[in-house]
Design a protein that fits this description.
Shape: globular
Mean pLDDT: 97
Number of strands: 12
Strand content: 5-15%
Bound molecules: nicotinamide-adenine-dinucleotide
Oligomer: single chain
Distance between the termini: 20 Å
Largest sheet: 7 strands, parallel
Number of helices: 12
Order of helices and strands: EHEEHEHEHHEHEHEHEHEHEHEH
Length: 327
Amino acid sequence: MKVYIFSAHPYEIPFLQKASGEKHELFFTDKKLSVTTAELAHGNDAVAIFTADDASSPVLEMLHAQGIRCVSLRSAGFDHVDLSVAKKLGVRVGNVPAYSPYSIAEHAAALLLALNRRLIQGRRLIDSRDFRLDDLVGFDIHGKTVGIIGTGTIGRAFINIMLGFGANVIAFDPIHNETVIAMGVSYVSQDELFRLSDIISIHCPLNEKTRQLISRPQLEKMKKGAIIINTSRGGVVNTTDLLDALESSRLGGACLDVYEKEKSLFFEDHRSNPVIDPLFDRLVANKNVILTGHQAFLTIEALTGIAETTIKNLDHWAKGERSANEL
Ligand code: NAD
């Protein structure tokens, strides 16, 4: 198959080339898929896209008009794709449902430790040869209550890490998983989770039920000083409400790998064309926020898994077969 790969970055291209070998002809662009770039894919059989690409209805219609019948997502999340329109058009869409959940879970733990143990401030002090410790006091995770929203693949990997620290883990998920219960985790209501947790980590997908799941009413129920970790999707958290809770010291901290309006910011170099986003500036200015630019998946193992499944989906479609990862 001829495959046009949008949002291709140097860190992933070798993994995709290795997974494809001679099977497919891959064409790479660092441009994001949108109504203005969709025509770049002309002459190809398929496109491969990432989370910042736009596969909304008009874009899918443009791809379809150019003869493209397959969209391979290099992500687990598919909230950027209009699946009902794809279905209507007969465009196959497949995702990478699982790839090293440890990459994301370990990054969530890294963010938590970095914020709680003030690693970035500590490093800055060392750089300036100031060895005072007064602003660097954290707390033990051991013995704390950690609430998990979404006990799927990544949520379970994060639960294991937290149990390793000696935390008491509770969870909310509309589906109760026996493996999670066997790990000693209790499922509780959303309200109980907000009320009881010292640390809350979000691992649910973004959909109509979870959009803005964490807004003012939920933040008001949380323990004073609680820490929120979001490595799922930015849209699950209302950033303005989160900042209000942080700035009023109701919330102790936020560890974020994703941001509501990340599409116009992340994955690109904006040093010479700064994006004006006062909400983002407020986040960055808050000393109780640690923020990374959607990099939780960035491990060798995850990139290998993403590339292999992306290509496997294309292998099936090239043979006219259905892929098990079709959405
Ligand atoms: P998964 O499908 O294995 O698990 C998701 C879980 O969320 C399921 O158990 C589901 O029942 C639960 N859920 C659904 N609605 C819910 C709700 N309203 N409240 C609580 N739980 C709910 O998915 P996963 O592989 O664990 O990934 C979780 C999310 O992580 C993905 O949807 C994606 O958005 C995000 N993600 C982020 C990165 C990153 O780099 N930051 C990488 C991969 C995935």
